[in-house]
């Protein structure tokens, strides 16, 4: 069997802690016969066994761009704040290295979302997101005025700060902050969540993964942001359609903690009453 290969993606700001950790990870992996590519390119990731991401959720989203294109799974070590997509904490690095050297992980596929931005001048852009596509007001702009639809039928129109088109993975990101529902990653669905909308019907929608979500920009200019990494201009008259992504993103998992456990840990949810009940029982 060929020696394992890891493509390393790190936080580009490289604070001293991050720089030392990245160096230690490279040395430890190479000592165990693992080849490490630090180019952060598609060519470097294409024949890797794993993409090791050291940083916060933003860095993991950057690693996801390589993972989606190559089909290589991503394993994140959290050096950020929330770290919802991460699998381990910095103090677990030695154990992570051992697991990588042994090729000991399982794969969790995460649904993505594909988006088409069709402008009135006939131009069209195609993009994707792991968390969400946000149709939001442009810089120094007023609220966007938009209509929303599902499967070719208009449902409502309103003014809002933004309209979010999310995946279950993204339900704990911007969607969560906007009051949208938390959807377990194993559930295949698409979410539409208005943000601070001025209308009577502004409830979040959860629809089939085979549905098509639609947002029409009715007035002024909007911006389409994909995972807060790729931005597109959407002038008045633009139609944004979103469907289930053709390519998933693979996350490498090292433990079998259920999503409910990750939810409690990441959001520091108060579960003392539940634990006390378990002790009494």
From TrEMBL:
UniProt name for this protein: NAD kinase
Query: What species was this sequence derived from?
Result: Actinotignum schaalii FB123-CNA-2
Which subcellular locations apply to this protein? Cytoplasm
Name the protein family.
Belongs to the NAD kinase family.
Q: What does this protein do?
A: Involved in the regulation of the intracellular balance of NAD and NADP, and is a key enzyme in the biosynthesis of NADP. Catalyzes specifically the phosphorylation on 2'-hydroxyl of the adenosine moiety of NAD to yield NADP.
Q: Which UniProt keywords apply?
A: ATP-binding, Cytoplasm, Kinase, NAD, NADP, Nucleotide-binding, Transferase
Report the EC number(s), separated by commas if there are several.
2.7.1.23
Cofactors: a divalent metal cation
């Amino acid at each position: 069997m060929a020696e394992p290969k890891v493509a390393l993606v790190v936080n580009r700001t490289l604070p001293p802690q991050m720089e030392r950790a990245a160096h230690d990870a490279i040395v430890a992996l190479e000592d165990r016969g693992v080849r490490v590519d630090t180019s952060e390119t598609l060519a470097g990731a294409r024949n890797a066994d794993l993409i090791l991401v050291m940083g916060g959720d933003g860095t993991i989203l950057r690693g996801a761009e390589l993972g989606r294109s190559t089909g290589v799974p991503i394993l994140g070590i959290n050096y950020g704040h929330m770290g919802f997509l991460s699998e381990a904490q910095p103090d677990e690095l030695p154990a992570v290295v051992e697991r990588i050297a042994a090729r000991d992980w399982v794969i969790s596929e995460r649904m993505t979302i594909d988006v088409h931005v069709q402008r009135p001048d006939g131009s069209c852009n195609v993009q994707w997101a792991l968390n969400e596509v946000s149709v939001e007001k442009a810089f120094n702009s007023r609220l966007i005025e938009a209509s929303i639809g599902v499967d070719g039928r208009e449902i409502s129109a309103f003014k809002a700060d933004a309209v979010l088109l999310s995946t279950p993975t993204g339900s704990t990101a911007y969607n969560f902050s906007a009051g949208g529902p938390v959807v377990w990653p194993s559930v295949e669905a698409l979410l539409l969540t208005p943000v601070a909308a001025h209308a009577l019907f502004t409830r979040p929608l959860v629809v089939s993964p085979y549905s098509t979500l639609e947002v029409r920009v009715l007035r002024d200019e909007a911006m389409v942001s994909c995972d807060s990494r790729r931005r597109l201009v959407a002038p008045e008259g633009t139609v944004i359609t979103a469907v289930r992504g053709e390519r998933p993103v693979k996350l490498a998992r090292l433990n079998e903690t259920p999503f409910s456990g990750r939810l409690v840990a990441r959001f520091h949810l108060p579960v003392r009453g539940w634990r006390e009940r378990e002790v009494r029982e």
